[in-house]
UniProtKB/TrEMBL annotation:
The name this protein goes by in its record: Peptidyl-prolyl cis-trans isomerase
InterPro entries (alphabetical): Motility-assoc_PPIase_GldI, PPIase_dom_sf, PPIase_FKBP_dom
PPIase FKBP-type domain span: 88-175
Transmembrane segments: none
UniProt-listed Enzyme Commission number(s): 5.2.1.8
Signal sequence coordinates: none
Assigned protein family: Belongs to the FKBP-type PPIase family.
Record-linked PROSITE patterns: FKBP_PPIASE (PS50059), PROKAR_LIPOPROTEIN (PS51257)
Native source organism of the sequence: Flagellimonas profundi
Catalysed reaction, written as an equation: [protein]-peptidylproline (omega=180) = [protein]-peptidylproline (omega=0)
Name of the gene: gldI
Length: 182
């Protein structure tokens, strides 16, 4: 009997282990994200190639490459003004939106004059940075790749997802914020 109890005690002690953690049903390898990144890189490269094609065919205008990732040229330049909008300044501007093939999506009349406080209100990313490049009474045309336009969502109306845009922007007035002068 003693032997039986000793064996039973050893068996009980040996079988007592901690709870075993559950293993995930599905293991994520990250390959979906890697594939998505590659698709995005290819899409951006194709859009930039299309924009470079437009620029190379346009011999009339001198395009400027923005450090923010878009291209533009001036239609009307104001050499007498020197002030560009800064954070907190309120501006009044008008713009239109077109496809890269010059198909009009929204006219300036449809959008209407737009009042905007620099870096305090949301515009699509490219336009947010584009208005900072203009001086009062200047007009420029901008070419935005889709990540700087409406990106993966579009505007849920006339602009679909992943659509690069062309826009003519004219800055009418700047109301300078006193804090931006310091």
């Amino acid at each position: 009997m003693r032997f039986f109890l000793a064996v039973l005690l050893v068996a009980i002690v040996a079988s007592c282990g901690g709870p075993e953690p559950r293993r995930p049903v599905e293991v994520k390898s990250g390959s979906f994200y890697k594939a998505s990144i590659e698709r995005t890189k290819k899409l951006l490269a194709a859009e930039e190639a299309a924009i470079q094609g437009i620029i190379s065919k346009d011999t009339v205008h001198e395009y400027i490459s923005s450090p923010d990732g878009f291209w533009y040229y001036y239609e009307t330049k104001n050499d007498t003004a020197s002030y560009r909008p800064k954070t907190g300044d309120q501006i009044l501007f008008s713009y239109n939106l077109m496809s890269l093939k010059n198909d009009t999506i929204y006219t300036a009349e449809e959008i209407g004059p737009t009042s905007h406080v620099i870096d305090k209100q949301q515009l699509f990313p490219g336009l947010q940075n584009a208005v900072k490049l203009l001086k009062i009474n200047e007009k420029a045309t901008f070419l935005f790749p889709s990540p700087l336009a409406y990106g993966y969502q579009g505007d849920n109306k006339a602009i679909g997802p992943k659509i690069p845009l062309k826009s003519s922007v004219e800055l009418h007035t700047i109301i300078i914020d006193n804090d931006s002068l310091n």
